[in-house]
Write a structure and sequence with these properties.
Layout (H helix, E strand, L loop, with lengths): L4 E4 L7 E5 L13 H4 L4 E5 L13 E2 L1 H12 L4 E6 L1 H12 L4 E7 L10 H15 L3 H12 L6 H28 L4 E2 L13 E6 L4 H13 L4 E5 L6 H4 L1 H14 L7
Parallel strand pairs: 2-3, 2-5, 4-7, 5-6, 6-8, 8-9
Antiparallel strand pairs: 1-3
Length: 265
C-alpha cells in the first residue's frame, strides 16, 4: 500500500526531510511547520495507516516498511526523519529495519512502552478506554486535546487536533467493526528497537508539561542512543509542533544544519 502523502516541492533534489505524525493526528499537524522547511529541503509528509487519507485494510503491515516503500516510490534514497509521539516510534523502527534510509533522527516526545507505563499514563489509558466503551467519541476527543496540548496551544491548534483525532477514531473504529464482522483485521507487526544500535545523529525532545511517562521515554532514549542530544521544552506538553510551530521550526533547522551529512541550505 502506498501511503497518502504530501511531497513538497515534488521531485526536488534537495535533501529530504520526512515528517511522521503523532498517533492522535495526521500529516496536517505539520501544516505550520512545512512552509519554513520547503525552501531548503524536500519535505515528505505521509499519513500512516488508519490516519488522514490512508485507510486501514485487513492485512499484515509494518509502519516502517510503509515509509520505506514511500521513499522508494518518490526516489528518495535517505532522509532526515522527524517523528512526533507515534511518529517517533516509527522513526526508530525505520532506523532499525532500514538503516540506510535514515540520515538523522529528531524525536519529538517519542512514544514507546519502555520504560514501563507510569500511573499517570495508565490513568489516561483507562479513561480513554472507558469513554470508548461507552461510545463517547466526543469525550475521547476532548480527553486527548486536554491531555496532549499544553498551555501555549492556540484555539486553532486545539480545533485542528480535535478534527484529526475525530477522523482517526472514525477510520480505526470502522476497521475494528469490520474485523468483528468477518474475523479479519489489520495486523501490525511488532518491531523491536534497540536504541543503543542507532547509528545516526539523534535529537530527543521532551515537553515539561507532558505526561511523566513520555518524559521518561525521552530521557531513556537520550541516555541510550549513542551521542544523542536531549532538549526539554519548558513550554511544551506532548505536541510542540502544534503548540509553538515557529519554535519547532527553529529547533529543526538548527538540528538539520548541524548534521554534517545533510547539506546546508
Amino acid at each position: 500500500m502506498l501511503l497518502a502523502h504530501d511531497d513538497t516541492p515534488a521531485g526536488s533534489t534537495a535533501p529530504a526531510v520526512v515528517l511522521l505524525h503523532a498517533g492522535v493526528a495526521d500529516r496536517r499537524m505539520w501544516d505550520s511547520v512545512t512552509p519554513a522547511l520547503r525552501h531548503a529541503y524536500r519535505v515528505v509528509r505521509p499519513d500512516l495507516r488508519g490516519y488522514g487519507d490512508t485507510p486501514l485494510p485487513p492485512e499484515e503491515y509494518a509502519d516502517a516498511d510503509d515509509v520505506a516503500a514511500l521513499l522508494d516510490h518518490l526516489g528518495v534514497d535517505d532522509a532526515a526523519v522527524v517523528g512526533a509521539s507515534l511518529g517517533g516510534r516509527v522513526a526508530l523502527e525505520l532506523a532499525a529495519r532500514h538503516p540506510a534510509r535514515v540520515r538523522e533522527l529528531v524525536l519529538l516526545c517519542p512514544g514507546l512502552r519502555v520504560p514501563e507505563q507510569t500511573p499517570a499514563a495508565q490513568a489516561f489509558d483507562d479513561a480513554e478506554e472507558a469513554l470508548l466503551a461507552a461510545g463517547d467519541i466526543e469525550g475521547v476527543v476532548r480527553l486527548n486535546v486536554t491531555t496532549w496540548l499544553g498551555p501555549d496551544a492556540a484555539l486553532s491548534a486545539r480545533e485542528a487536533l480535535a478534527a484529526m483525532q475525530r477522523h482517526a477514531l472514525e477510520v480505526q473504529l470502522a476497521a475494528g467493526e469490520a474485523e468483528r464482522a468477518d474475523g479479519v483485521g489489520p495486523r501490525p507487526l511488532r518491531v523491536d528497537v534497540d536504541p543503543a544500535r542507532v547509528a545516526v545523529p539523534a535529537l530527543v525532545v521532551s515537553g515539561a508539561h507532558d505526561l511523566d511517562h513520555f518524559r521518561a521515554v525521552a530521557a531513556h532514549l537520550a541516555a541510550t542512543i549513542p551521542g544523542a542530544e536531549h532538549v526539554e521544552l519548558s513550554w511544551a506538553a506532548h505536541l510542540p509542533a502544534l503548540e509553538r510551530p515557529a519554535a519547532v521550526v527553529s529547533l529543526l533547522l538548527d538540528a538539520l544544519r548541524a548534521d554534517p551529512d545533510v547539506h546546508r541550505p
